[in-house]
Amino acid sequence: MITDKDRLYFQTRAEAELRLAAEAEDPAVCQAHYAMATEYLEAAHGAGLRLPPDPQRLSRG
User: Fold this and answer.
1) For residue 3, which of 48, 37, 54 has the smallest C-alpha distance?
2) What is the pTM of this model?
3) Would you say the C-alpha torsion 54, 52, 47, 8 has a positive or negative sign?
4) Which long-range contacts (CB under 8 A, 24 or more apart) does 11-19 make?
5) Which of 20, 23, 34, 42 is the most exposed place for a label (fewest CB within 10 A)?
């Protein structure tokens, strides 16, 4: 079960990833940061039993 502390962590990480995406000069790097932000937002606001983002899943897309 994801706690409120977990949700806050995921939200904070998503915000950090969005900042990094905005600063990225390489489009591929920008896209990777946006993908991670999406994963963190889904973890924070999605299904209650969601695990932390899986970097391996992102590399498949």
Assistant:
1) 48
2) 0.74
3) negative
4) 11/40, 11/41, 11/44, 13/40, 14/38, 14/40, 14/41, 14/44
5) 23
pLDDT, tens only, 2-49: 889 989 999 999 999 999 999 999 999 999 999 999 999 988 887 545
Query: What is the length of the chain?
Result: 61
Smallest CA-to-CA distance from 35 within 2, 6, 59 is with 59
Token readout for 29 is 């790097």
Pair of tokens at residue 33 = 């940061």
